[in-house]
Design a protein that fits this description.
Elements: H1 2-21, H2 24-29, H3 48-55, E1 57-62, E2 65-66, E3 70-72, E4 78-79, H4 81-93, E5 96-101, H5 107-111, E6 120-121, H6 129-134, E7 135-137, E8 142-144, E9 146-151, H7 161-164, E10 170-173, H8 178-186, E11 191-194, H9 201-206, E12 212-216, H10 220-226, E13 230-231, E14 242-244, E15 247-249, H11 253-268, H12 271-278
Parallel strand pairs: 1-5, 1-6, 10-11, 10-12
Antiparallel strand pairs: 2-3, 3-4, 7-15, 8-14, 9-12, 9-13
Helix pairs in contact: 4-11
Length: 287
């Protein structure tokens, strides 16, 4: 009888801690639970957050091909703006982080897969109404918009979409994402070239194998800063305006609430601004 009472007590403590963890008060500080819970003796009852805490690991889907938001090095190490946001979410949950490879063509299928492929996806994912119809998207943590990369020697050649929308202009995009969709919808006269690996496109443009890369204002500055052969002449005049957020499957509303709480706290305490400064990105929020 005593053993059952102890187990029940630990179960109540565990579930109470999970519910408390989701509250705005705890999210404001993201402190870990004061009293460790014996997770081996507990079976959590429902809820995405409870499952993550019980597993002791946040599974994060990311493409790893999008400098400086999400990139996977040859040794398997991940770095980037989105990667740091994911680790902050995991820290607030008091769990470890594990990154799971996904791709732009398979992103939606991976997010909605049964059984789940991962808990959430992060790294250069634009908030759109279409995605919100079938999945959950967090509040934005990074402003973005479509722009171009081109060779520095051609920077004066491209001043508008009309300058790009010509048959002789080879526009290179990665498959399955919003870059390809934007190019197909807005550049019907240009020569669209689909290249499988997003991270290789800037070099191909620099080497003359394509003329323009459709990208985001979050990605373009990194390549301009690291390759003098490249330019982003329309960086201050993006073709679209939007935000990047965290993507989750429906039914994870408790996790969505928790993630939004982390993003809000990062905005108010200066963490998000510091990340923007670290990665050379323009901060578009009020602290």
């Amino acid at each position: 009888m005593e053993r059952m009472t102890d187990k029940l007590r630990r179960t109540v403590l565990f579930l109470t801690a999970v519910l408390t963890l989701c509250s705005s008060t705890v999210l404001a500080s993201c402190s870990k639970m004061d009293t460790p819970v014996d997770r081996d003796s507990v079976t959590p009852i429902g809820g995405a957050v409870a499952e993550i805490v019980a597993r002791d690991t946040l599974l994060v889907g990311t493409t790893g091909d999008y400098r400086p938001l999400s990139f996977r090095e040859a040794d398997g190490a991940y770095w980037g703006f989105g990667i740091e946001v994911a680790r902050e979410i995991a820290r607030c949950l008091g769990v470890k982080t594990a990154f799971v490879p996904t791709s732009w063509p398979t992103l939606t299928a991976d997010v909605t897969a049964v059984p789940p492929t991962f808990d959430l996806a992060i790294g250069g994912i634009t908030i759109t109404d279409a995605r919100k119809e079938t999945m959950l998207m967090s509040e934005g943590y990074l402003a973005n918009g479509k722009t171009i990369l081109c060779r520095a020697s051609d920077a004066g050649r491209y001043k508008s979409l009309a300058d790009i929308n010509r048959p002789e202009v080879r526009v290179m995009v990665n498959p399955g994402g919003l870059n390809e969709k934007f190019a197909n919808g807005n550049l019907p006269q240009a020569t669209i070239v689909v290249h499988q690996k997003n991270e290789e496109i800037p070099v191909l443009v620099a080497e003359g194998l394509a003329d323009v890369m459709i990208t985001e204002i979050t990605e373009a500055p990194y390549y301009v800063q690291n390759d003098s052969r490249l330019a982003a002449p329309l960086l201050s005049e993006p073709f679209t305006h939007g935000e990047i957020g965290v993507l989750m499957r429906k039914g994870q509303e408790d996790l969505l609430e928790m993630v939004n709480g982390v993003i809000r706290r990062m905005k108010t305490d200066g963490t998000l601004r510091r990340l923007h400064e670290k990665y050379g990105l323009v901060y578009a929020y009020e602290d």
